[in-house]
Amino acid sequence: MTGNGHVNEWASRVAVVTGGGSGIGKAIALRLARAGAQVIAGDLRFDPAAEQPLVAARVRMVPVDVRKEADIEQLMAVSDNLGGLDLLVNSAGIVLVRQIPDVSEAEWDACLDTNLKGAFLASKHAIPRLKNRGGGSIINIASNAGLLPRAHDPVYSTSKAALIALTQCLALSHSPDRIRANAICPGPVQDTRIIDREIELAADPEDLRQRIIGASPLCRAFGRMVTPEEIAESVVFLASDAAQLITGTSLAIDGGKSLGVPPSTTSGR
């Protein structure tokens, strides 16, 4: 029961979160655990700094390479020991900033396999388990780069656009099973490996930080990036009973970056 006497819908639910060792995935795992779910976080590696809050929240941590089906099978088997699976969040992902002529086959494979194949494999093994529970939810963490192509990271954009398409196909194909599939498309999210690394390597880190913020009209207006916790809140909503008839959507949480060219702060054009 919750404090207002209502039954906590999360109390009996089991969730698997890939990429749960840092950034967005970690925030999602912690938020779901706080809601009352039993959470299994899979990641290629868990940073020591990330482990303490996950352990404190009783999140089960499982080493997994989402590109390998055997690893995915072992990850999903943990949910069997907890009685089933109600939610899969595919958050594992990597970035690739390079033009197509300069991309090696190995780099293409690494990006597409992590961002797309990983979600395919996890969904493949989650769907029978979700059906056994009478339905459930799959949430894919895509990107605003999947909503509109970006010139500086075309392979990453391709992988995220394909992930949105996969989300829609899952939603359409498995609606008779009461399985919902939705995508969340973040924009610039602070406190993530991708953004932190990019800023760290910049010649002028603060200048790059401000340029990233300035590329999204609402981020510019509020003077900040999106937080991982904001993405996590949207996951809780989309996987909740309140969103029971929401499926196949792509929710942009990007400060308006995917809307188009932001207005100038000087000319208003």
Description of the structure:
It is a single chain. This protein has 269 residues and is α/β, with parallel strands linked by helices. The protein has 2 domains: 14-187 and 227-254, NAD(P)-binding Rossmann-like Domain (Rossmann fold, 3-Layer(aba) Sandwich), CATH 3.40.50; 190-225, no CATH class. The chain contains 9 helices and 7 strands. The protein has helices spanning 23-35, 48-56, 69-81, 105-132, 154-173, 193-201, 205-214, 217-222, 228-238; strands at residues 14-18, 38-43, 60-63, 87-90, 136-141, 179-186, 250-253. Strands 3-2-1-4-5-6-7 form a 7-stranded parallel β-sheet, with helices on both faces. Helix 3 runs parallel beside helix 4 (105-132) and helix 6 (193-201) packs across helix 7 (205-214). The chain is globular and about 50 Å long. The N and C termini lie far apart (53 Å). The mean pLDDT is 93.
